[in-house]
Amino acid sequence: MKVLVSDKLEEIGVKILADTPGIEVDVKTGLKPEELKEIIGGYDGLVIRSATKVTAEIIEAATNLKVVGRAGIGLDNVDIPAASKRGIVVMNTPGGNVVTTAEHAISMMLSLTRKIPQGTASMKAGKWDTKSFSGREIFNKVLGVVGYGNIGKIVADRGRGLRMKVIVYDPFIPGELIAKAGFEPVSLDELYARADYITVHVPKLKDTLNLLNAEAFAKMKTGVMVINCARGGIVNEKDLEEAIKGGKVAGAALDVFEKEPPGEHPLLALDNVICTPHLGASTFEAQTNVAVAVAEQIAAFLTTGTILNAVNAPSVSGELLAQIGPLLTLGDRMGCLAGNLAFSGGHAGAGEACAAGAKAAAGHEVVIEYSGDFKGVNLSPVTTAIVKGLLAVIVKDDVNFVNAGIMAKDRGITVTEKALPESLDYIQMITLKVDGKNCSHVVSGTIFGKAEARIVRIDDFRLEMIPHGHILLIQNQDKPGAIGAIGSTLGA
């Protein structure tokens, strides 16, 4: 089996792959898309970082590809749905660089506060200017942390170690859990109003794109400092420029940009903006950690079928995967459908519309019933697939088969499994029930033949639906003309 390493990887990772019996490794970095497309069909595995773009077109040409491994966390450069459709496992290394990225955010905050980059540049220009670079203390200042995930938690802890007052906003984490950790949970508007420093640690999603924009800056206290070591685009760069020029924002520290590299960018011309070229994960320790992890994961998958840290498949042995593969696909799609109904404002027959947005997830009860003969197979990975699909509606790329259970618990979502000996309608059936304060939904599914997933119930409606692609779910009164009107609207 052949593995292509298309981005720079620490030598220890290459050696692990090369030393694995049955695996041949090629290192070819800096490939243009057309060059990668031309050769990818000859490889079983692909190791990448952020430079290589694994597009649908590349995946279509990857006729033998079985696994893509990302040395790092972010998978913005991989078309995961296209890979999943082709049965290609996509892995990342979620724990390898969280400390490094959090430390970089703290370093940026301190450097911004004390104007260290500007002072260094001045001295290297032959000057000794002690008046132009006066800073301020961070002691007793309010640090606002937006996003309390793996990195945000570490940043909050380091801020506390610096004797800052740490306030946290995360709509997916119950406030009592944040408070239990010793931090103050607040609303986003309150964080804007109170924070002396605001640092963002959220994934780049539709809901977080341009999260810090002109409207948000207007709510902040004058003199606030902004740090973004998460993803470019979460902070609106044009609005940030105007907020700095207008005096609302005293300074910004940016490790990421909407376009990378940013080229001649107006923010780079501002004296009170410091920046680094996406160095959040760039330490020797982090690069070694992710190189070792991705190499070991790909070697294990190609030699034994074992899956670790995959975002589109659970962590299971190769033998178990062969038994439950179709059920994993079904479970993920059922969870996604139920999540859209329960958490995104979709509603069918509960009297009151479900609460929209992230807060709707907190406090929900999830019951998963396995009815019929599953031949004693371990179904816990299927449960994980369901929970992952459920949470993907509100946290998207940040949830995977590794962290789904933890993320559900952190959000106050309880998950219960039940095994029923018989299924009245099918040999095997999975039923997912999601109960919240304002709504309750039921989704059931089964497997037709050996591998064809079907949704067979949504709330009180019986149906037969292939859970693939984009699905428009419409509830209408049962009266003449409704279907025709819907068809005409869609046609137009």
Characterise this structure.
It is built from 16 helices and 18 strands. The radius of gyration is 25 Å and the shape is globular. The relative contact order is 0.10. It is α/β, with parallel strands linked by helices and 492 residues long. α5 (98-114) packs across α7, α13 runs parallel beside α14 and α14 (380-395) packs across α15. It has helices at residues 11-18, 33-39, 56-61, 80-85, 98-114, 116-124, 150-161, 175-180, 188-194, 214-219, 237-245, 284-304, 318-343, 380-395, 404-410, 482-491; strands at 2-5, 24-27, 45-48, 67-70, 89-91, 142-146, 165-169, 184-185, 197-200, 224-228, 249-254, 273-275, 365-372, 414-420, 428-435, 440-448, 452-458, 461-465. The strands form three sheets. Strands 8-7-6-9-10-11-12 form a seven-stranded parallel sheet, with helices on both faces.
Distance between the termini: 51 Å
| Residues in β-strands, percent | 15-25%
User: What would you call the structural class?
Assistant: alpha/beta
Round the Cα radius of gyration to an integer and report it. 25 Å
| Overall helicity | 25-40%
- Largest sheet, strands/sense/barrel: 7 strands, parallel
- Strands ordered across the widest β-sheet: 8-7-6-9-10-11-12
Q: Give the low-confidence spans.
A: 346-358
Morphology:
globular
Give the number of helices: 16
- Oligomerization state of this entry? single chain
DSSP strand count:
18
Q: Roughly what is the average pLDDT, rounded to an integer?
A: 90
